[in-house]
C-alpha cells in the first residue's frame, strides 16, 4: 500500500517541551512563568487542540503561541478491535511513517502499550518489528501523543491507568526523547498524571542506558530476557553479543529499586528453543539473587516466522517449576490475536502492496 504523507512539521511542536523548557521560553520573553503551567494544563488535562481555546490566557499571548508552536495530534489511519476488547491503533506520522499502539483491557483497568521508534534496530529473531529494521526515533511529542490521543479516542471512563513502553522499538535506544516523554506522562500537576509505579519500560538490555534510567526516572523496569544461557539468547537477540547475560544481570543488580519493588523479566516461550524443564531450572538459578518476577509469554505465531508456540502442558510445566523455586510467575496470555496485536503486525499488513 502506498502511504500518503501527512503535512510536514513546520513549527516547534509544543509537546516536545518539558515543563521547565516551556517555563524558560516564557521567561526569556519577559513573560510570567506561570503561563507555562496554564498552557500545559490546557493541553494535557483539558485536551484542547488550539491555543485560541485557552481562554484564561490573553489574546496577545495566544497569538504568540500560535505563531511559535504546533499542537498536533497523530493521524489515525486504522483502528481494530478484538473480540477480547483489545484495540490496536495505527497512527501515521508527518513523514508518512506509521506506528502502532495497543489498548489492553485488564480486570480493573486498561493498559496502553506505546511505541518509541519507527521500526527497531535490535534484530530480535522472534519480533515482527525487527524485520523492517530501524527507520527513525520518535520525537518526544509523538510518544506523548499516543497516550494523549488514545485518552480522547477511547472512552473508557478513566480506566486507562497503566503505560508500558513495549510497543515498536527499543526505548533505551531513544533515551532522551523517552525520558522527556516519561516526565510529561508522570507529571501529576500539569502533565498526564500517570503514577510512576504504573509506567513500565521494557528493554532488550542496553546496559549503559539502564544505569542512567534508574537515576533519571522512577518507572518500573522490565527486561526482555527469553533465554537463560548466552548461546540461546545471542541466537534470539543479537544485543546479547554486546551485553551478555553476565553484564545484563550485573546491571540489574545495581539498578536502584524502591523497597519491595522487583524487576520484571519477560520470557517468550518458543517451542523447542527455550521451553524445556531444564531451561526453567536454569532460569531459576540465573535469577535467584535478584528481586524478580517473571512474565511468561507464549510465542505469538505469525506468517514467515520459523518459531512455534509451545503446547499448554509445556507452558504450565515451565511456570510450575519457577513457582516451586519461589518466583512470582505469571503467564501472559496474548490478547488481540484476532487483530494482529503483536508488535509490528498491523503496520506490516498496512504496508503490504
Name its key features.
353 residues, alpha/beta, DNA polymerase, domain 1, TIM Barrel, 2 domains, 10-stranded mixed beta sheet, 12 helices, 14 strands, disordered N terminus, disordered C terminus
Describe the structure.
This protein is of the alpha/beta class. The chain folds into two domains: 12-70, Orthogonal Bundle (DNA polymerase, domain 1), CATH 1.10.150.530; 75-351, Alpha-Beta Barrel (TIM Barrel), CATH 3.20.20. It is built from twelve helices and 14 strands. 33% of the residues lie in helices and 20% in strands. A ten-stranded mixed beta sheet has the order 3-4-5-6-9-10-11-12-13-14, covered by helices on one side. It has a two-stranded parallel sheet with strand order 1-2. Strands 7-8 form a two-stranded antiparallel sheet. Helix 4 (140-153) packs parallel to helix 5 and helix 10 packs parallel to helix 11. The model is unreliable at 1-7 and 347-353 (pLDDT under 50).
Amino acid at each position: 500500500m502506498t502511504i500518503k504523507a501527512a503535512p510536514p512539521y513546520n513549527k516547534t511542536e509544543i509537546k516536545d517541551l518539558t515543563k521547565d523548557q516551556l517555563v524558560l521560553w516564557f521567561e526569556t520573553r519577559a513573560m510570567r512563568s506561570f503561563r507555562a503551567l496554564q498552557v500545559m494544563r490546557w493541553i494535557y488535562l483539558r485536551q484542547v487542540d488550539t491555543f485560541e481555546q485557552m481562554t484564561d490566557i490573553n489574546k496577545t499571548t495566544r497569538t504568540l503561541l500560535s505563531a511559535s508552536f504546533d499542537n498536533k495530534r497523530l493521524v489515525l489511519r486504522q483502528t481494530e478491535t478484538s473480540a477480547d476488547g483489545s484495540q490496536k491503533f495505527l497512527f501515521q506520522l508527518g513523514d508518512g511513517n506509521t506506528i502502532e499502539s495497543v489498548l489492553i483491557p485488564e480486570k480493573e483497568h486498561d493498559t496502553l502499550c506505546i511505541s518509541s521508534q519507527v521500526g527497531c534496530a535490535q534484530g530480535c529473531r522472534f519480533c515482527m518489528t525487527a524485520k523492517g529494521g530501524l527507520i527513525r526515533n520518535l520525537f518526544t511529542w509523538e510518544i506523548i501523543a499516543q497516550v494523549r490521543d488514545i485518552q480522547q479516542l477511547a472512552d473508557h471512563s478513566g480506566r486507562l491507568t497503566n503505560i508500558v513502553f513495549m510497543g515498536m522499538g527499543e526505548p533505551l535506544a531513544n533515551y532522551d526523547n523517552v525520558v522527556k516523554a516519561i516526565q510529561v506522562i508522570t507529571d501529576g500537576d500539569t502533565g498526564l498524571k500517570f503514577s510512576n509505579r504504573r509506567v513500565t519500560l521494557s528493554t532488550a538490555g542496553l546496559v549503559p542506558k539502564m544505569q542512567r534510567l534508574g537515576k533519571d526516572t522512577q518507572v518500573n523496569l522490565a527486561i526482555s530476557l527469553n533465554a537463560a544461557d548466552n548461546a540461546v539468547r545471542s541466537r534470539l537477540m543479537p544485543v546479547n553479543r554486546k551485553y551478555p547475560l553476565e553484564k545484563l544481570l550485573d546491571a540489574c543488580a545495581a539498578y536502584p529499586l524502591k523497597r519491595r519493588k522487583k524487576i520484571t523479566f519477560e520470557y517468550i516461550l518458543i517451542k523447542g528453543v527455550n521451553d524445556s524443564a531444564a531451561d526453567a531450572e536454569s532460569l531459576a538459578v540465573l535469577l535467584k539473587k535478584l528481586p524478580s518476577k517473571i512474565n511468561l509469554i507464549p510465542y505469538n505465531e505469525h506468517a514467515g516466522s520459523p518459531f512455534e508456540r509451545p503446547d499448554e502442558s509445556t507452558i504450565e510445566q515451565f511456570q510450575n517449576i519457577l513457582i516451586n523455586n519461589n518466583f512470582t510467575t505469571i503467564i501472559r496470555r496474548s490478547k488481540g490475536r484476532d487483530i494482529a496485536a503483536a508488535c509490528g503486525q498491523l503496520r506490516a499488513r498496512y504496508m503490504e502492496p
